Structure formats: structure tokens, C-alpha cells
Amino acid sequence: MRFIGAGARSDRPQIDHDRVFTVPNALTVLRFMGVPLFIWLVLAQKEYGVAVVVLAVMAGSDWIDGYVARRFDQASKLGRVMDPLADRLALITVAVTLVIAGVLHWLYLAALLVPDAVLLAITLFFFRGHPDLPVSRVGKVRTGLLLLGTPLLVLSRLDSPFGGPLFLAAWIVLGLGLVGHWIAAYNYFWAILRKGRMQSHQDAAGHDAAGHDRARRGGENKDGGTA
């Protein structure tokens, strides 16, 4: 079974439906709900072990909802927007929480936020909303690495003889994830730019065609009125 794109069926194309109440969307909502629970466990309760379980459930639901959507034809337009938004919210909020808890350095958070801030700015400039771009393979691997490295780092805070090796493993995985994050951001930047420019050209062409059509109709009406 493939890890990336698991559940995809070659006998039929994937279609994004207009449905809202689907199993993948319910799993995405579950991932949203895991964010405040993680914050409470880490900052209020200092329950790092339970917090890791919550992260594992969130990461698992990310893979499962994609599999169910592809395998059982439950992909939706809403899910296409919600899924990457839930991933981004989870990654950033978890990072902020761990910075506050002293587990992560603020430079890690900056490395996450700077590319996202640039992409948000260019997206709002061109689209005033979601650019509706497919998630790239690099983006999927990046998300998986960051979601794996974060619980490893939290586990390294537990009082156990494996704290040192877990800490090292966590930063190797997180480092690879950050490299993938910047590569994915670079690719998304140019994809957004190309699509935004194409849309601008199409809008300009549409306005010109509409203007010529109005001018032609105005000329016809004028000619008809003087006949």
C-alpha cells in the first residue's frame, strides 16, 4: 500500500463533491479539536505523555481522512480547503505551545511562519481567498515529518533513559521537515504566482471583450436610431 496517495483508485477519477457531511470532513474536524486539547495538556497539565497520544491521533487522522476520501469517493470541495488548513493550524499552534513551554526555540517557529506569511500575502493579493491548489508530494512529506518529529521531541522531555536519543532523532526529523517546508513553500509561491497572473490576464481579456461588445451594441443602437 502506498503511503502517499493511498486509497486512490485507477478505475475512476477523483471528483471533489459539494457534500459537507462526510467521514473525511468529520476526521478533519476532529483534528481541529485536538489542537486546544494539546495546548491544555502541555501548558496547564504538563501531561506530555498524553499530549503525545493526542498528536499521534491527529497525525493518524490526517492520513486516514485522505485514504477514505480517495478510496470511497468522499473527496469534497470543503475538505480540499479544510484539510491543509487543519494541518497548518496544528503545526503552527503546536509549535507556539512548545515554544511557550520551553520545549522548542523560537527560531523553529520563525522558520515555520516566514514562508507561510509570504504565501498568505501573495495569495490575498491575487485571490483574496483560497488559491485552490493541490497539495504537493513535498508538502505531504513535509507535514508527515513535522507531525512525526514533534511528538518525538515531546517524548524526549519525559523522565526516561531514552531522552537523549529521542531528542536527537526528533531534531533530525524536524530538520528534514523544515527543509521540505521551505521547498514546498518555494514551489507553492511560483504556482500561486503563475495561477494569479493567468487569472489576471483572463480577467483583463474578459473585460476587454465585454467592452468591445458594449461598444458594438451601442453602435448598432445608434445606427438603428438614425435609420
- What general outline do the C-alpha atoms trace? elongated
Calculate the mean pLDDT score and round it: 84
> Quaternary state, please?
single chain
Number of strands: 0
Describe the fold and architecture.
This protein is an all-alpha fold and 227 residues long. The chain has a single domain (23-226), classed as Up-down Bundle (Four Helix Bundle (Hemerythrin (Met), subunit A)). Helices cover 77% and strands 0% of the residues. It has helices at residues 23-44, 48-71, 77-100, 106-127, 137-155, 163-226. Helix 2 runs antiparallel to helix 5 (137-155), helix 3 (77-100) packs antiparallel against helix 4 and helix 4 (106-127) runs parallel beside helix 6. The longest helix is centred in the C-terminal third of the chain and has 64 residues, at 163-226. The protein starts with 22 loop residues before the first helix and ends with a helix. The mean pLDDT is 84.
